[in-house]
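Design a sequence for this backbone.
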């Protein structure tokens, strides 16, 4: 790479080695005179993830045939701008990759053992709620049924660390972090029902709930890429394990006063109110309500 004319005695222009550690610092941008970030033709600008912007002089010839391949190292020197830069790549294509030595934080088993649902990322959600008011002069039956569908999924994300900017196809010139998500999704139908009796002039409150939520567990490990020419390289990688789970629906009921039922519905606290007050005389006072 070329350089501007400078005073070599200028102490501000003392050479510094480029510190590039694939564990901590990555190349966020590598501009060779094209695109919105270019200041001038032939200008090379390198932006590191730690905020530094390293630049070359304007007399650097533009590279019309940029090097492509798997980035295995970068070295160089800079003053106020980059005076020397060596990029080491491997042209061979990868034919196998494996993530190994994975460590979770926290461990999934520890998360699942936690008795506190909130700390596990789970919450109890009310699916349906109803009140049945018996306005008849004799005991009445009720039947509460719940049917619902939930999408349950489990996924795990493999993302290449920003420190190495590797994609699984092995090419370093792609500047964005590559993410590969695997998992499954399926629909679960939740069914349950409860029946009971309610005394004359009384009310019963029935509601159904399920356990829903997701927990996030961070993980880190190593990514080993094997190439067609027999070379093998290992890099750090990380990701986040996510899971969504739903329990079977549970139904709960308790007796309540007619006034309490009416007040709950009037305040908008509950979804549905059923009463047999309007049934013709002599009809069976049993009532089914489905939500």
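Sequence:
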């Amino acid at each position: 790479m070329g350089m501007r004319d400078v005073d070599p005695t200028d102490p501000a222009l003392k050479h510094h080695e480029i510190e590039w550690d694939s564990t901590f610092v990555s190349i966020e941008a590598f501009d060779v005179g094209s695109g919105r970030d270019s200041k001038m033709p032939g200008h090379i600008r390198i932006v590191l993830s730690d905020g530094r912007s390293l630049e070359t002089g304007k007399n650097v010839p533009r590279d019309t045939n940029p090097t492509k391949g798997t980035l295995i190292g970068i070295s160089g020197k800079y003053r106020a701008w980059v005076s020397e830069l060596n990029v080491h790549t491997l042209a061979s294509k990868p034919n196998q990759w494996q993530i190994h030595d994975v460590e979770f934080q926290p461990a999934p088993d520890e998360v699942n053992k936690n008795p506190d649902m909130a700390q596990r990322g789970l919450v109890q959600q009310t699916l349906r709620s109803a009140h049945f008011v018996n306005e008849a002069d004799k005991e009445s039956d009720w039947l509460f049924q719940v049917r619902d569908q939930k999408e349950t999924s489990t996924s795990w994300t493999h993302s290449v660390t920003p420190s190495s900017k590797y994609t699984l196809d092995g090419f370093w010139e792609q500047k964005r972090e590559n993410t590969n998500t695997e998992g499954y999704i399926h629909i679960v139908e939740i069914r349950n029902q409860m029946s009971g009796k309610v005394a004359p002039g009384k009310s019963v409150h029935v509601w159904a709930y399920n356990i829903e939520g997701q927990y996030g567990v961070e993980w880190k490990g190593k990514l080993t890429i094997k190439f067609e020419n027999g070379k093998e390289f290992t890099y750090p990688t990380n990701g986040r394990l996510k899971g969504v789970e739903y329990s079977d629906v549970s139904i709960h009921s308790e007796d309540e006063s007619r006034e309490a039922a009416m007040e709950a519905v009037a305040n908008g606290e509950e979804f549905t109110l059923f009463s047999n007050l309007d049934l013709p005389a002599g009809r069976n006072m049993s009532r089914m309500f489905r939500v």
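The mean pLDDT is 62.
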